[in-house]
Design goal:
InterPro entries: DUF2304. Pfam families: DUF2304. This is DUF2304 domain-containing protein. Keywords: Membrane, Transmembrane, Transmembrane helix. By secondary structure, this protein is mainly alpha-helical. The protein folds into two domains: 47 residues; 66 residues. Helix content is 84%, strand content 0%. It contains four helices and no strands. Helix 1 runs antiparallel to helix 2 and helix 3 crosses helix 4. The longest helix has 52 residues. It starts with a helix and ends in an 8-residue tail after the last helix. The model has no long low-confidence stretch (mean pLDDT 90).
Length: 122
C-alpha cells in the first residue's frame, strides 16, 4: 500500500507540473528538470527494488541513505542553477537600468535644447 500511495503522490505532482507548464506559470527549461525528476521518482515508486539494486551497486548500506544523498545532490544542483539564473537576471536588469538612465538624460537634454521642459519621472 505505501508503494501505491507514493506512486499516486508522484503522479499527482507530475500532473501539477504539466498543468503549470500549460498555464505558462513554469518555463519550459525548468519544467524539463522537474519532469525528469518526477519520472525518476515515479520509476522508483513503481519499482522500489531499483533503489536496493543501486545501493548495492554503489556500496551504500541502506537504500534510504542513497535516496537522501541523491536528494541532497539534486537540491544543491538546483540551488546552484537558480543562483546562476538570478545572477544573469541581475546583470541584465542593471544594464537595462543604465540604458534607461542614459535615454532619460538624452531626452531631457533634447527637451532643454528645444526649450520645452519635460518631466520623465512619472
Amino acid at each position: 500500500m505505501p508503494v501505491f500511495a507514493g506512486f499516486v503522490i508522484v503522479f499527482a505532482i507530475l500532473v501539477f507540473i504539466l498543468d503549470m507548464l500549460r498555464k505558462r506559470r513554469l518555463r519550459e527549461k525548468y519544467a524539463v528538470l522537474w519532469i525528469v525528476i518526477g519520472l525518476a521518482l515515479l520509476l522508483l515508486s513503481a519499482f522500489p527494488q531499483l533503489l536496493f539494486w543501486a545501493a548495492a551497486l554503489l556500496g551504500v548500506q541502506a537504500p534510504s541513505n542513497l535516496l537522501f544523498a541523491m536528494a541532497l545532490l539534486l537540491l544543491i544542483t538546483v540551488c546552484l542553477h537558480l543562483s546562476f539564473e538570478q545572477s544573469q537576471s541581475e546583470d541584465e536588469l542593471r544594464v537595462l537600468a543604465e540604458e534607461v538612465a542614459i535615454l532619460k538624460t538624452k531626452v531631457r537634454e533634447l527637451d532643454e535644447s528645444a526649450g520645452t521642459p519635460g518631466n520623465l519621472d512619472t
